[in-house]
Design a protein that fits this description.
Layout: H1 4-16, H2 20-30, E1 31-38, E2 43-45, H3 46-60, E3 64-75, E4 78-87, E5 94-103, E6 106-116
Parallel strand pairs: 1-6
Antiparallel strand pairs: 1-2, 3-4, 4-5, 5-6
Helix pairs in contact: 1-2, 2-3
Length: 119
């Protein structure tokens, strides 16, 4: 049985890690080798591509953290969840929803949607 919550927790752990060395192991744990990520403003492929996206978000939004918004939903090898991005203890500045395909317990193809972005 697929543990959708654990998969989502691994995703957020990777996205929230600021130390590049520590993040490498988290990216490898959360994403398949051939991972593909797409949203309206960025895309990345493979572990190096995902790592570059995460580093870019930390560079643009220092001190911001991703947090689960609502509940994780999944069936079979499909998962969806919503998230907020902002400083700890404040309302999220950016919100989105991700839909993904799971392969061997890790995220393989992720499509992100931005639900709230600052003007």
């Amino acid at each position: 049985m697929t543990d959708y919550n654990a998969i989502t927790e691994a995703y957020f752990a990777a996205w929230n890690e600021t130390d590049a060395t520590a993040r490498k192991a988290l990216v490898e744990a959360a994403f398949t080798t051939g991972v593909s990520y797409r949203d309206p403003i960025m895309q990345g492929d493979g572990h190096d591509g995902i790592d570059a996206l995460i580093a870019g978000v930390h560079g643009q939004f220092p001190g911001f953290r991703f947090k689960l918004k609502g509940k994780v939903d999944g069936f079979g090898d499909n998962i969806r969840f919503s998230w907020g991005l902002g400083p700890d203890g404040t309302e999220a500045v950016i919100e989105g929803s991700d839909f993904a395909i799971i392969k061997d317990g890790r995220l393989s193809i992720i499509t992100g949607f931005l639900d709230k972005v600052p003007g």
